[in-house]
Amino acid sequence: MILKNSYSTRSPFIEISLSILPQEVIKGYPERVNHLGEHVKKRRLELGLTQKEVGKFLGVSEETVYNWESGKKQPDVKLIPKIIKFLGYVPFEPEGDDLISRLKFYKLINGLTVEGLAERLLRHPDQVRAWLTGRRKPSKKNEKWIEGILKKI
Fold first, then answer.
1. Is there a contact between 21 and 46 (Cβ–Cβ < 8 Å)?
2. How far apart are CA 132 and CA 130, in angstroms?
3. Nearest-angstrom CA–CA distance, 128 and 125
4. Same domain for 62 and 120?
5. Are both 107 and 69 inside the same structural domain?
């Protein structure tokens, strides 16, 4: 992701300008990003927001944002799409190029549980869980079905 030094927009009614502060002047700015909470912290500091403001945007408490940023807890999977929107980029990559890795990635970035993924795939949750854990491989028919779903993204 490429970050601009500032963002501004004009309309006939309002002018908005948002400065993204250089990394050198931001106290607590993470040098390396090792977990999702550090991605949130980095973006929050770039935008000059408080943990409370980020929490309000994401629908969680200030304490929850603090716990993510400090690495004490990880966000619930259902919040991942909102976090991606806040960050402006996807902080994850698929584990591989194979079908199941891409399916796991789809599940993650869409904030889905196994049950939610199964519903989208029109398959039973136990069947989808078995694919994701590697206990079973999808049949050729199911592989084709999954590919069709993944092509839509």
1. yes
2. 6
3. 5
4. no
5. no
